[in-house]
From TrEMBL:
GO terms for cellular component: cytosol. Residues 5-314 form the D-isomer specific 2-hydroxyacid dehydrogenase catalytic domain. GO terms for molecular function: glyoxylate reductase (NADPH) activity; hydroxypyruvate reductase [NAD(P)H] activity; NAD binding. It holds the Pfam family 2-Hacid_dh. This is D-glycerate dehydrogenase. It comes from Thermococcus aggregans. The lineage of its organism: Archaea, Methanobacteriati, Methanobacteriota, Thermococci, Thermococcales. SUPFAM superfamilies: Formate/glycerate dehydrogenase catalytic domain-like, NAD(P)-binding Rossmann-fold domains. Belongs to the D-isomer specific 2-hydroxyacid dehydrogenase family. Residues 109-290 form the D-isomer specific 2-hydroxyacid dehydrogenase NAD-binding domain. InterPro entries: D-isomer_2-hydroxyacid_DH, D-isomer_2_OHA_DH_cat_dom, D-isomer_DH_CS, D-isomer_DH_CS1, D-isomer_DH_NAD-bd, NAD(P)-bd_dom_sf.
């Protein structure tokens, strides 16, 4: 008899077919995450679970999962999973590193450009008819933003995505400084980046982009103190995890102009709604779409399938 897997969201059909060779597959076809009671019910009877970052895998869920042997996360970050609780029960946890690196670095850079050049504000201005209505037509002081060439980009977390972002920024003539838990001397030399301490990075960067995983150490790593150390022209980009930044402190910083703007793909709670933040013009927001390219999502599904099959084969 084949082991059973529950997949909490739609993934590409090809990969489901591959997984079906080894598993009896059940998929939650709704675009929204399965409600908690559904997940708690489904988990009772499965050997494997495919999860996304919004599926909370904690003690409560695992206590209801007597047969569960593997959790295959459809993402690189796995802060939604209580790894200790899984390990105690001998449950394997896999993720999908590497295949979404370029997509996420592209999005971080897209947000950086969008905030720096006020693209969303400008788009709204044109679409709303304000441009046509205004008698200015075109004014040399309209929608002024920040240039990138010669500016300093500070990267926090110099792993796969952080380094991929650095390579992109080099092409735009930016100076790269980084702070990471461990120094990456080879990547530093190859890319042309300089290692600095955390405070120096905060004080010297014109743009700061976050690429650390969410852990106890990185939770609210950017709070009031850190935002106050940043330059008034600094733009903060977060495509890592929402809780790396203290949102209330960020809103205060944006309102009181301690920093110039922010581009956010991730939020402390997801899905997210916050009128106070959404009213601010100097932020560009995205609904956690860092890895949302056809290429990355296919790569992630392939890896999930490979991980499940490797496990099934022992
Ligand atoms: P990675 O493991 O290659 O890089 C993470 C880097 O952070 C490492 O260099 C590590 O040394 C550093 N780091 C860890 N803890 C630190 C700390 N306390 N202080 C300073 N540096 C620290 O991971 P990656 O593939 O580059 O992904 C990074 C994160 O991006 C993921 O964990 C995930 O949360 C997030 N992510 C988001 C999306 C999205 O859709 N927005 C997509 C992919 C990944």
């Amino acid at each position: 008899m084949k082991p059973k897997v529950f997949i909490t969201r739609q993934i590409p059909e090809n990969d489901i077919k591959i997984i079906e060779k080894f598993y009896e597959v059940e998929i939650w076809n709704d675009p929204k995450a399965p409600p908690r009671d559904v997940l708690l019910e489904k988990i009772r009877d499965v050997d494997a679970l495919v999860t996304l970052v919004t599926d909370k895998v904690n003690e409560e869920l695992l206590e209801n999962a007597p047969k569960l042997r593997i959790i295959a996360q459809y993402a690189v970050g796995y802060d939604n999973i209580d790894i200790d609780a899984a390990t105690r029960r001998g449950i394997y946890v896999t993720n999908t590193p590497g295949v979404l690196t370029d997509a996420t670095a592209d999005l971080a850079f897209a947000l950086l450009l969008a905030v720096a050049r006020r693209i969303v504000e400008a788009d709204t201005f044109v679409r709303s008819g304000e441009w046509k209505k205004s008698d200015v037509g075109w004014h040399p002081l309209m929608f002024l933003g920040y240039g990138l060439k010669g500016k300093t980009l500070g990267i926090i977390g110099f792993g796969r995505i952080g380094q991929a972002l650095a390579r992109r920024a080099k092409g735009f003539g930016m100076k790269i400084i980084y702070y990471s838990r461990t120094r990456k001397t080879e990547a530093e030399k190859e890319i042309g980046a300089e290692y600095v301490d955390f405070e120096t990075l905060l004080k010297e960067s014109d743009f700061i982009s976050l690429h650390v995983p969410l852990t106890k150490e990185t939770y609210h790593m950017i709070g009031e103190r850190e935002l106050k150390l940043m330059k008034p022209n600094a733009i903060l980009i977060n495509t890592s995890r929402g809780a790396v930044v203290d949102t209330n402190a960020l809103i205060k910083a944006l309102k009181e102009k301690w920093i110039a703007g922010a581009g956010l793909d991730v939020f402390e709670e997801e899905p997210y709604y916050n009128e106070e933040l959404f009213k601010l013009k100097n932020v560009v927001l995205a609904p956690h779409i860092g890895s949302a390219t056809y290429e990355a999502r296919e790569g992630m599904a392939e890896l999930v399938a490979k991980n499940l099959i490797a496990f099934a084969k022992g």
